[in-house]
Batch of 2 targets.
Target 1
Amino acid sequence: MVRILISGRHVGVTEAMKQYAQEKVGKLAKIFDRLTKVEVTMDIAHDAHAVEIVVDANRGVRLVGKAESPDMYAAVDLAEDKLVRQLVKHKQRLTDHHRGEAARGAPPPAPAGGLREGGGAPAAAEAREDTYEDVIERLGEE
């Protein structure tokens, strides 16, 4: 459950503005389901409408999206777009972290079926993992 706080600075936040911001925040929660708190602050300063959205995710991760526009609804859209990109990037970092060698630039896994293009033996037989003893032996040769 995401806790959503919507406030205004130098502006009275109408019910329609709250509803619109909650819809946009709902999209963020669909992208990354581990959000704990979202703070939306709307501000008006010298004919510019500013929106700041602060998202707290799990493990102390805090992402911020700020945007200014002549229209408050457009500013909410721009701030939400910035946070979408940040959340997608954060989510990719988390999944890449758990993939191991595939994330660090190792060759992609063998195609389905495990056969090489020319037929013959499975590709897994060629790419054998080194054992601990193999690594120690190789280090001793250097």
Note: Residues 24 and 80 are 7 Å apart (CA to CA).
Target 2
Amino acid sequence: MRDRLTISVLALALVTVLTLSAQQPPPQPPTERAFHFGNGREGGPRGRWWTDPALVQKLGLTADQEKRIDSQFQQSRLKLIDLSAALQKEEAIMEPLLEADRPDEAQVLAQIDRVAQARAELEKANARMLLGFRGVLTQEQWKKLQAEAPPRRGPERR
């Protein structure tokens, strides 16, 4: 009976991990990461949008605003690189735990928590940076930037 419960719990954990992995795009280095506003389902343009001359002109960004946004990005960049690497490391640690012939339930569940925590830390750091960007923009610029959102490809896709 205990073996069946263990197998059921591990199967549920595996499905959960696979589901979370399928919902999350693989982490990219912060220099290439799709920096955006919003909750991940909507928002502004992707990439280093504040260096795109056409968008800068469309938004009416001043040279000071561009400089302030770039400064915030540079200040956040190393932390984002470290957090992205930490997430990749935790995911790499989990792989062999799940591939074992007889996965250790306690180890797998603990590692799932570490992966989730690493992902949360990365998302929080990215959100803090983006909130700083938003603080540099006027309300009118913010609305224009939101209107530049890339087209959505599905209800849960980024």
Note: The radius of gyration is 20 Å.
